[in-house]
Amino acid sequence: MDGSIRESREGREQLSRALAALPKEKLVALILETYDVASSSPHGRAVQSNIEAAAFISSAPDARTAGLREAFESLLGREHFIGYRESAQYASAITTLLYALENTLLDDAPEEALRLCEWMLEREEEFLSGVDDSDGEVGDALRRVSILWLMAAARIGGPSRGWMDRIEAYAEGDRFGVRDGILRAANLLFSSDELVELYERFRQKAYLSSDRIPPVIHMEQVAIALADPERYEGAIRLLAPEPNELFRLDIARTYLEFGRPDRAEAILTSGEWGENLSGYGRESLLAEVYEAQGNRQGLRALFEKRFHENPTAEHFDTLEQLLDEEEQKQLAKDATAQATSDKDAVRGATLLLRLGEHQQAEDLIVKRSAQLSRAFYGSLLDLAPAFHTAQHPLAEIIIYRALLTDLLERGYSKAYDHAADYYRKLKRLEHAVPTCPPQIPSHEEYHRTLREKFSRKRAFWQRVAPK
């Protein structure tokens, strides 16, 4: 079974059916073989514990807890640093054991499940120390502990006030940002009235504290558990009575998430909004609001404004979907005229290619070729293959010259393999364009200038030397 099948839901369902059809003896042999192979894996103990937990599910709860704790302790007993490449496997081992905890203890022995969750909450630093968690996968795995704690507490039951004290202490003791779910999902344990009481607890702390930020954050998280955007807004206004743009975006997004698009629209269409990142974020969120409302006129006005201000191919496609056939034809005509005179050659050429105006796209690249040295490297990388598909080699040559020159001017030796690749592509393309137009240096002139200007880049020239 290849990787694509293995990672797809259909592939997993196919595998599940095949395993279910295996004779019992073969299935037992396969599980035992997996158990043995796991012993040689860096985190194989987690796999073995999961198999043990499933096999001995009828054993005493305290024995199951001891087995799982032993498996978790084996993850903590490492002597080497877990690098970026290993961290995903480490996170997967934690997740596997948490699934075992949920499947074997949560319903039958919630007290044991709760104790094991609390044991883990107290050792978050040990789980996170010595790990390169740049992708946050280990932190995400540990966030599941808080959810399981809530689920176990709900099954145990009892007076809510005792649970409230404990959850408050856990939230306030969160030093690594992996316990935020304990308040965001507190509705798993508390009723709405109890959540309001918890929200008020944190509000009183905010009033009394010299640093309001932590209790306000906890108020926001409880408001999410309540699905109450008014209380979420109230928490922010306790910190910032006149919220800035970023706060207002956050408030509007929360109203939208909890089914209040009209209130979100009122926030987004009132007050002053700057033309910075917040301003663009406002338009993106406003588009989501209009979609939730089914407001096509609002969407159209918004997308027309966006395309007029930034005529990209992506914005063209978004606007085109809202127009009828005749309006689409007029939009394409207007977009072509706008793109051919665009001072941003890459943006204009990309749009012209999208419109099927391949020759005009190449003409724009030729006309503004000197500008490409200031273009974003990544956008040029995307544009070159588009011209290749459109069979316009002159534009390809101009773009690969710009890419090659950029890498050599920066002296980024680690990218010289890419530079050599561009050089070879230029050599292959030259036969398709024997003569360059007057404003574009000839092939001979370009290579002579390249050799003179970058003669000291020996690492590059070695890569393109004939073998």
Describe the overall structure.
The chain is an all-alpha fold. The protein has a domain at 345-467: Serine Threonine Protein Phosphatase 5, Tetratricopeptide repeat, CATH 1.25.40. The chain contains 27 helices and no strands. It has helices spanning 3-7, 9-20, 24-38, 44-55, 61-76, 84-104, 110-121, 124-128, 137-156, 160-172, 181-184, 192-208, 213-226, 229-239, 245-257, 261-268, 277-293, 296-309, 313-320, 325-340, 345-354, 358-367, 377-389, 393-410, 416-429, 443-453, 458-464. Helix 15 (245-257) runs parallel beside helix 17. The radius of gyration is 30 Å and the shape is extended. The two termini are 41 Å apart. 29% of the residues are buried.
- In terms of structural class, how would the helical and strand content be classed? mainly alpha
Helix content: over 70%
Q: Specify the biggest β-sheet.
A: none
- The CATH topology of the domain at 345-467: Serine Threonine Protein Phosphatase 5, Tetratricopeptide repeat
CATH architecture of the domain at 345-467: Alpha Horseshoe
Question: Mean pLDDT across all residues, rounded?
Answer: 89
Strand content: under 5%
- Using only C-alpha atoms, the radius of gyration works out to 30 Å
**Based on DSSP secondary structure assignment, what is the total number of beta strands?**
0
- First and last CA, distance: 41 Å
Number of helices: 27
Shape: extended
Low-confidence stretches: none
| N-to-C order of helices and strands | HHHHHHHHHHHHHHHHHHHHHHHHHHH
CATH class of the domain at 345-467: Mainly Alpha
